[in-house]
Amino acid sequence: MKKVLYISSLLFLLAAAFPLQGQVIAERKVRFGIIVDGDTLPYYHLKEIHIIESGSLLTETEIRKNQKLIRNVKKMLPYAKIGKQRLDILEKQIAGLPKKERRAAIKAAEKNLLADFSDELKDCTISQGKVLLKLIDRETGRTSYVLVDELRGKIRAGFYQAFARLFGYNLKAGYDPKNNKDDNLMERIVLSVEHGKL
Length: 198
Known about the structure:
Blueprint: H1 2-17, E1 33-36, E2 39-42, H2 60-65, H3 67-94, H4 99-122, H5 126-140, H6 144-152, H7 154-166, H8 181-194
Antiparallel strand pairs: 1-2
Helix pairs in contact: 3-4, 3-5, 3-8, 6-7
C-alpha cells in the first residue's frame, strides 16, 4: 500500500513539474517599460517617500517651549491643505476660460470657501491668522498677496493688504524656512505633525 501511495505521489509531482506537450502554463502580466539604446527596461511607479534629517523633527525641549505655536500650526494646517486642493481645482476650471466666465468662477469659488469656513475661521486669533498665511504660502508656493493679485486683481490685493496691515498681518510676507528662524521652526513643526510625531 505504501508503495502504491509513494508511486502515485511521485507521478503527481512529475506531472505538475513537466506539463504535457501542447499545454502552455504561462503567467502573463502587462508591464510598462522604456527602451534605452535598443534595450527594454522595466518601468515601475513607486510611491513617493520623504527622507528627513533627524534634526528636522522637534526635540522634547522644543515641544515644551513652543506649545502655542504647535497648537496654532496643528489647527491651521488642515485649512492650508484644503485651500491648496481647492486652488488646484479652481485653476484647472478657469484655465482657458474667457475673462467674464473666469471672474464668475472665481467669485463662486470664493463664495463657497466663505460659506464652508467663515464660521470656523471667524474665531481664530491674530497669531493663528499669521500662521495660516505662512502655511498657505508653504502649500501653494505663493504669498497670499500674489494669490489675490492673480485671482482678483491688483486693486483688490492692495485693498486686502492695507486692511490686513491694520491687524498686524502682511500678505506679502513669504515663507522661507531656510533663511528665517521662525519659518524654520514652523517647518519643523509641520514635518513633525505630518510624520505623526505631534
